[in-house]
Fold this sequence. Notes:
With 243 residues, the chain is of the alpha+beta class. Helices cover 33% and strands 28% of the residues.
Amino acid sequence: MSNHQMLNNEQHRNLKVHTKRSAELGDNIMLTLTFPHEFYDIQAYYPIVFHKDEATEKFQSYALLGLEKKENLFLCNDGWDCGYLPHTIKAQPFLIGFQNQEINGEIQKQRVIHLDADSPRLSREQGENIFTEFGQNTPYIEHVGEILGEIDKGITESQDFLKLLTEYDLLEKFVFDIELIDKSHNRLSGFYTINEEALNNLTSQQLTELNNKGFLKPIYMAVASMLNMGELIKRKNNRLHTK
């Protein structure tokens, strides 16, 4: 279980954060959560796939970074080899949290920043300062706060988006068989993608509803993003070639 703590300028005054990207710092992951309003930036580099949580039976959307577990094909010796870093990667090791606070005599849920106290990114020696020596927020943590705000907005937006995709039967399972240059066969399965036939058969009423909610654009972005599967295979082959 991760050790999440609410960020505060007493307990965490002297902590720094490694912002370098590497496997040692926990970046060797196959996928990372993404959200409809981020799809435009994501689709320029990563395939967008959907996955159903077995426990909740609910879908979530992910940027695909590798073709097998603990593989990130965008990581290289110099860091992250790509023009866009997903919000959920950029925010690490911070998370969005909530706390009940009394405002004008009413108890309201306020957004607060939590941190994963066990993260290898945390250090007392080197990295970005979270607070100044006087306990004020640094520009770095202010920026992280903005990204967490985007993530929070994305989580809320995703629920409505994925509910409609399910309702309109727009998600289909896909299996991707890959033959690599070393003649090994890999199979990517367990993920869903947009069913283009179902998309083409939507009624004008359904299309209008998706459009009014701002969901048509991310749907087409997710479709376009699958062209990046070829790029992932190329990256994987390059690794095999240099081994």
